[in-house]
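Hi C.,

You asked whether I'd gotten around to modeling the 69-residue construct. I have! Everything is below, sequence then structure, no commentary in between.
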Amino acid sequence: MCYAIPGLVTAIQDKVVTVEYFGEHKTARNEIEALKLGDYVYAQGGYIIEIVQTHEAESVLSVWKETFF
């Protein structure tokens, strides 16, 4: 089973995006043209699959932070 959590886009270079998860940085490939720095996203299998609304991402991350950190 896999749990998708929102990550914050911190860098975009061509189609490679750096996504930050609780201080850890991962890279993923992006095919979404509207993506910009500061967006929250879901990534799966090394690909950005969806842009997440900020209020939704912050709500999910708050629960994760309380539960796991």
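If it helps when you're writing up: Strands lie at 7-13, 16-21, 24-29, 40-44, 47-52.

Thanks,
B.
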